[in-house]
Specification:
This protein is 41% helix and 11% strand. The chain is an alpha+beta fold and 158 residues long. The chain has one domain: Rossmann fold, CATH 3.40.50. A three-stranded mixed β-sheet has the order 1-3-2, with helices on both faces. The chain is globular and about 50 Å long.
């Protein structure tokens, strides 16, 4: 399940997964632009962008203390020219700051991807099916450790 893969990450994550062609016609939701003031990290951005573009499925954790620019690096990676070429309309940023459960995270990802959810559907099942059947997509989960640390029973998330 997707949460098993997410459990391997801490602060930021990039996941490339296949998405269905029918979803590509949806408009791209509002996404953050890279900060204009950004110095000394171009090498990291280029290295991670190359890793993301060259491999089928990649999970990258950008770790460090608060305030050092992990989110800025992740957003710059999303806007790297090679990443844009690979995922022109399938790049999503999901802020996990206020998320405290796997279900809430799944719902937030579904909303970001603009995938409808019926009131009786299991959120995690819908997310798993959507991600399993979709074209290549880049998802950046910012502050994923908030979700991970909120639930101490990680076995239940898997």
């Amino acid at each position: 399940m997707i949460l098993r893969h997410l459990s391997q990450l801490c602060t930021s994550i990039a996941i490339r997964i296949r998405k269905s062609e029918s979803l590509t016609s949806l408009p791209l939701p509002s996404q953050p632009l890279p900060p204009e003031i950004f110095y000394g990290r171009d090498e990291y951005v280029a290295e991670i962008a190359l890793l993301i573009v060259k491999h089928e499925q990649v999970r990258v954790a950008i770790m460090g203390v608060g305030g050092m620019g992990k989110t800025s690096v992740a957003i710059h990676i999303m806007h790297h020219l090679d990443v844009i070429a690979k995922y022109p309309n399938r790049r999503y940023f999901v802020g996990c700051d206020a998320v405290e459960s796997a279900d809430t995270l799944a719902l937030l990802i579904l909303e970001t991807l603009q995938i409808p959810l019926s009131s009786k559907a299991n959120t995690l099942d819908v997310l798993h099916r959507a991600l399993s059947s979709a074209p290549s997509t880049l998802i950046v989960l910012d502050n994923f450790e908030t979700v991970w640390n909120a639930d101490k029973n990680h076995a239940a998330d898997r």
